[in-house]
Design goal:
By secondary structure, the protein is of the alpha+beta class. About 25% of the residues lie in helices and about 15% in strands. The strands form 8 sheets. A 6-stranded mixed β-sheet has the order 16-18-22-14-4-25. It has a 5-stranded antiparallel β-sheet with strand order 5-6-7-24-15, with no helix packed on it. The two termini are about 40 Å apart.
Length: about 600
């Protein structure tokens, strides 16, 4: 498969040739430019294509004798409860606002960057069958203002050298036995050093290499070093307590243009009105609870107290999850002090009692830790800065460990704008979540807490290997485009996301969040050797976007700043929190060829 790189208005886009005929670009540009109404900060005109000009390219493998043809459909709604967040709990666990763009979330109501697996189990859900899984994807916006504030990628990058953003580690560890404390501290310091060296290399090599240089020469080696260091931390803890699982999910790092965002983040809601679509989401955001870390503040814990301390650390996670869930379910209730009195106040009391139990457990065999009670109060992230809401500072700044910011800039204004992603958010008209079969074999159950990503949020810098064409129109699902589509009258704009469905049989996550899953052969549907077919997740999202908005290039995907709303950066994330019983029903439905809900 060949690739081409286009430069439009100094913006760089990598387009997959063969999915969309190259001649289409000129046709689409002419059709849009004739109107002359495209806002200056919108995606480039060459990023749009009439769907009729896209050739049919969806391959449906032939189903063999042992294939599984059933489909299990889950209704989780269309994010009508407005759970928006710039967190990415799969790709950037522990990094608040780490996506630098806003996601729609359906399903699990408590999920945030700080969620633990167990806290997800205790959550409520928008899914009608009780599925507590989390499904989330970048929002679509309509940009109305011709001169709306928002920097393109070249402006952001020219503002300074980016920095390395990595998930924090100390804040995600279980209780560290006192026998392992020194060794763990040495390895946490090594993580600091690795990030510092990578940041220095960014400075020293600025301007060198091609578009994949940073990923291949800096981020890739850093990930490998972090995997080894995280393994040493797990081994050290495991000598005197249960070995922590899943630390490899904290290995992957990314670039942050945090310093370049200043002055380019958003309009603050002043100049960009909400989307005009009949399905436009109300201009509100569900904030999340931001509590001081406890895990990273505990010193060595006596072996006799490790289990009790871990139970209480898990309880702190559950309390935060319950508060996040309550923020969703009580939106619009009470007066200006409702959140303080009904959510943050009770949470503080619960945390105080739990922190006291941690201190007592440690004090039975070691000096009682001092000052834990100061960690009880919490505040909100991404809250609209209205007087009296208990959060005068909705973006409380950076903190963290390993020399790395644990929090990037949050959303601003009634349109939840962030890092050049501006305009009114469009609520999907429909979201279809399907678990599907495999053409050549029966499927086995997905493991609980399986994490998965489809597509790539950064095909410009990482290359197109993991990127996927996802855009189409209702009535044209035999073709997918890597450009935004212009649909005929009466047809909806659609995004179709197919997840990898060949599991390695062991891991629920991996260092790059991909290696534990593989994509089935496109032509036959066969899984690679050494993997097992699990139900394939397909998420189809439909939008009612006015035709004049489509024709004038005024809708776009939220993206990382350096992607300039590149439609080829579309992606979707998933955490499986189906119960064992529900997953068994899904597998049975798919393997017996039925249509189920």
């Amino acid at each position: 498969m060949k690739h081409a790189v286009f430069n439009t208005k100094s913006r760089r886009f990598r387009v997959l040739v063969g999915f969309v005929a190259l001649a289409v670009a000129g046709t689409a540009t002419a059709a849009i430019a004739a109107n002359g109404r495209q806002p200056s900060n919108a995606a480039p005109l060459s990023a749009f294509v009439p769907i009729e000009n896209v050739k049919a390219n969806v391959t449906t493998p032939r189903v063999g004798r042992d294939g599984s043809t059933g489909v299990f459909t889950v209704d989780c709604g269309t994010n009508g409860n407005r759970k928006f967040s710039p967190d990415n709990p799969v790709a950037q666990p522990g990094v608040k606002n780490g996506a630098q763009h806003v996601h729609d979330f359906v399903g699990n109501q408590s999920i945030s960057a700080d969620s633990s697996d167990q806290s997800l189990v205790d959550s409520e859900t928008t899914c009608r069958n009780g599925d507590r899984s989390s499904y989330f994807w970048p929002v679509v916006r309509i940009v109305e203002q011709a001169n709306a504030v928002g920097a393109d990628a070249e402006t952001l990058k020219a503002a300074g050298t980016p920095t390395i953003s990595c998930p924090t580690v100390a804040n995600r560890l279980p209780a560290v036995p006192e026998q392992a404390r020194d060794e763990v501290d040495r390895n946490l310091a090594l993580l600091d050093q690795q990030i510092a060296e990578a940041n220095q290399r960014l400075i020293d090599t600025k301007g060198q290499g091609g578009p994949n240089f940073v990923n291949n020469a800096i981020l890739g080696p850093l990930r490998s070093k972090r995997v080894a260091t995280l393994d040493r931390i797990a081994i050290a803890i495991g000598r005197n307590a249960p070995r922590p699982a899943g630390l490899e999910s904290l290995a992957d790092c990314d670039l942050s243009y945090d310093g370049a965002h200043t002055g380019h983040g958003s309009t603050g809601g002043a100049t960009t009105p909400p989307a005009t679509s009949p399905n436009a989401a109300p201009p509100a955001v569900t904030p999340t609870v931001n509590c001081p870390t406890v895990r990273g503040k505990l010193r060595g814990v006596p072996a006799q107290a490790v289990d009790e301390v871990n139970r209480n650390l898990d309880l702190l996670d559950k309390q935060i999850a319950e508060a996040n869930q309550r923020l969703v379910s009580t939106q619009g209730q009470g007066g200006p002090n409702f959140v303080n009195n009904a959510i943050l106040g009770p949470l503080k009391d619960k945390r105080f009692a739990t922190l006291d139990r941690i201190a007592i457990a440690i004090s039975r065999n070691a000096p009682r830790p001092a000052g834990l009670e100061a960690l009880a109060p919490c505040k909100l992230d991404n809250a609209n800065p209205n007087p009296g809401n208990g959060n005068p500072n909705p973006n409380p700044g950076n903190g963290g460990n390993q020399g790395n910011p644990a929090e990037l800039p949050g959303v601003q204004g009634p349109n939840l704008e962030i890092a050049g992603n501006v305009g009114g958010i469009v609520q999907p008209a429909a979201v279809k979540i399907e678990y599907r079969g495999n053409p050549t074999s029966k499927v086995v159950a997905m493991p609980k807490f399986l994490k998965a990503i489809t597509g790539d949020a950064k095909p410009t810098s990482r290359g197109p290997a993991n990127a996927r064409a996802t855009w189409t129109c209702s009535g044209f699902t035999d073709r997918l485009s890597d450009k935004y589509v212009i649909c005929p009258a009466g047809q909806k704009v659609m995004r179709v996301h197919d997840f990898a469905s060949c599991w390695d049989g062991k891991n629920t996550d991996s260092a790059n969040h991909r290696d534990h899953l593989a994509v089935a052969d496109r032509n036959t549907g066969t899984c690679p050797a050494g993997t097992k077919a699990v139900p394939q997740l397909r998420i189809s999202i439909s939008y009612d976007i006015p035709q004049d908005v489509q024709r004038t290039g005024r809708y776009q995907l939220d993206s990382f700043p350096e992607e300039n709303h590149n439609p080829f950066s579309d992606h979707n994330d998933f955490v499986n929190v189906n119960s064992d019983q529900t997953m068994a029903k899904i597998v049975d439905c798919v393997n017996t060829g039925r249509r189920c809900k």
